[in-house]
Amino acid sequence: MIVNSLRVLFFIPIKKTIKVFKFFYNPKFAYSWIIEFIDDKIITKKHRRYVNFNDNSLIDYKKAINVITKTNLSELKNIESNFPDFLSSENKNLPNFSWAATNELAKLTYIITKLVKPKVVVETGVGPGMTSWSILQAMRENKKGHLYSIDLPTPNTKNMPEVGYLIPGQLKERWGLLIGPSKKILPNLLSELSVIDIFIHDSRHSFSNQLYEYETSWPSIKNLGFLISDDISNDAFIKFSKNNDRKPILIKQNKKFPIGIIKK
């Protein structure tokens, strides 16, 4: 019995260590991830002047949609009633479900997609795929639209079954997944697409990466389109909004830092 217990104790860390080793054995992914890690943990700490948010500066996601789209709250409540149930007992038991987006971000993207009926949405950061699922479900109901997602696996996400594993198979016909760093993939994708309706940032939340993605995607977002960003945890979103003469809307969610949204 003691031998079996020791076997279980040491098997799990060794298994995870092997997966991490395999990840770093891929030079392309490892280099990109290390650069982003340094940016996030060292450089970003110098850019946190505008992140002391209080309750008065943050609003509910339905109120935010009401303000930015002029849609009345009763209609938004009706749309929200069709929101799919992500938090089933089956999904809760899947590995790394904690990496999934909050309900607030998923519902925000679902409702906006239902209202705007976009032809093209681009997102960075997929993880389990909760936000992707919400967008694709809305597109299926709209019978219109295509989602392009960019994700860079890390040692942690490599321990998941696969990127976007929450997304049901029947929704994937409207989904294109591109694996790699956004700094390499995003400009080429936007060049091919020419115009997009919505851009969503949910990849590495470092100052330079966020600012890069906002500035790169903004010219491709059509007039009256939207830029949405999870985790406003540094100055990039506020700085970008000021530079482009836009008033940011900050949305409270079930974690420390809010969601940001601006309309072009």
List strands and helices in order, with pairings.
Blueprint: H1 2-24, H2 27-43, H3 61-69, H4 73-80, H5 89-92, H6 103-116, E1 120-124, H7 130-142, E2 146-151, E3 175-179, H8 182-193, E4 196-201, H9 207-217, E5 221-229, H10 236-243, E6 249-251, E7 259-263
Parallel strand pairs: 1-2, 1-4, 2-3, 4-5
Antiparallel strand pairs: 5-7, 6-7
Helix pairs in contact: 3-6, 6-7, 8-9, 9-10
What does this structure look like?
The structure is a single chain. With 264 residues, this protein is of the alpha/beta class. It has helices spanning 2-24, 27-43, 61-69, 73-80, 89-92, 103-116, 130-142, 182-193, 207-217, 236-243; strands at residues 120-124, 146-151, 175-179, 196-201, 221-229, 249-251, 259-263. The chain has ten helices and seven strands. It has a seven-stranded mixed β-sheet, with helices on both faces. Helix 9 links the parallel strand 4 and strand 5 (221-229).
